## 1
Amino acid sequence: MSISSPDASSGDPYGRFNPLGLAQTSENLRSALEAQPQVALTGLQPFTGAGLYALYYRGNLPIYQDLSETLVPLYVGKAEAGNSSYGDSPSERKPKLYKRIEKHRTSISEASNLSVEDFDVRYILLDDVWIVLGERALLRAYSPVLWNTLLTGFGSNPPGEARTNPRSFWDTLHPGRPRAANYLCNRLLTRNEIEVRIKEGIAVSLMTPGVDRDHALAQLRERRYQAIWSLPPKANKDKRPIVYRPDAFIEENAAFGVSAESETWRAAHTTSAVAESDVEHFDDEDDQNSDE
């Protein structure tokens, strides 16, 4: 099953067709990507070049079951040929895109409840000038893309070894990566709350594009949650984490085998309601949208 095409004339008060508009670019890139062969992630062979890619789930994990027979990806990403920060000329001889996908294959293989055999990939080689625009266009075409927006952390770089690093949404739902082994639990949501959020996101993914879908997506983005814990302000001499939901904090850390002795954290005197959009943006704030 494929999602419907975006409206190419959207945004023009006269309904004129804009061949270079974002909506039409999104449709062109989505169509081109879906025309590429869908390859088993385990069977992907090395290749050179840069471009865009999408990962699809074909396994039996119940939470993703509704997506397994669709063309809706779990994750989309990019790999550029050049270093745009320095203006270097791009090199098409390097396997930039392949290495990016290979990195994801490793993350999936390390997760305790995922199997690389259950994933497919599509990719398309592009000139650098189209890659950044193309990634945004694909995110908009398939929005919300679960592992880019709702379950962030999959493509991010390791943030360091500090124990007070929060476990990402992805590492909470798919534990096993060594880099997150000693991290504290997610600072905003429990595992059960993350699963509810994912189910709601999948329901939005499968809606027909239009006003109702936009409204449902906006509601999901604007939802507020009570934080589990946070780090103290930098000026605070007591550097222990501030815990707003002690029961959830203790239970979640115990589930990952992370000790949370009472002397290593302090309970807050007041609760803290944190806006989801302020903590984990739909534009990969946790992922930093870099995958570098």
## 2
Amino acid sequence: MIRHIFLYKVAPHADPNEIVRILNELPKKVPGIRTWTLGKHTGEPGASGDLWDYGLVCDFDDFKGLQTYSDHPFHMEVVEKLTPMFSARAVCDYEFANASVK
């Protein structure tokens, strides 16, 4: 499995609810997404440094599925529309065998 993590900060002029609405269209229109969660940071600021406003986590069967998602025309449209609405963003993709707690 491949986990795709997207973190972002909302630009001062942007509507965070509109960003969430647009992002949540992706699983309906782009095939291959196995799991999808999106939420606003709710913890208190701590010693961890600067915090992100929102986080999105989704899983794919393999890197080919992630690439299909990344290259999908609707995803590309969403990226173009949302990029000006972010003041910062970060992505991390990694492979994992299965989720477990030790």
## 3
Amino acid sequence: MWYVYIVKCSDASLYTGITTDLERRVMEHNESSKGAKYTRARRPVHLVHHERFDNKSLASKREYEIKQLPRSAKLRLLLCD
């Protein structure tokens, strides 16, 4: 199982990624050097959205789609949760 996720950073920016383990990945963003360089400078982060996929390919395609959205569309996506 693969997940596409969005975290909200301490500066209110949004970061989108993929993982097989949401809890571990959010912890990495907050506490580890394994978190993305972008989020390491904007801790703490909070999980605000996730979607589940059967394989990495589908998750990667959805991640790309979300990353192409303007911020306003990403915020609307969060409101649907």
## 4
Amino acid sequence: MVNKVNINFIKSSHYIFDLKLCSIRMIDNSNFPWIILIPKRKGVTDITDLKKNDRNQLMEEIVYCSNIMKKVFKTSRLNVEKIGNIVPQLHIHIIARKKTDTTWPLPVWVTKTKNYKKRELDLNINNIKEAFLKKKR
């Protein structure tokens, strides 16, 4: 069953792509290249709420998206996290990090969000979408 995307995600992120299990959205924070994976399942707040096949699919999609983020943003460092303190709906953060980013080596949450300028946002979304489309072929 497909779950409506939480309003907090819609306000702070932009749709990129749908995979078998997850909808992929880009967080609107130009400090860090950052996507979230949101499983399209109703009432799921934790990984343990998923059925076994969905848990396995989630891990596959995390690895798949991680490889895309590494390639598109030319980094070997990623933060992959499931937190859910504010938004209970299960979602996984994949954040490309570099030693030169604004908070290195601290977590991304220690700095204020800086929204993308439209052109930069569109470019990043297009680059990520293109990477998904190339990888699917």
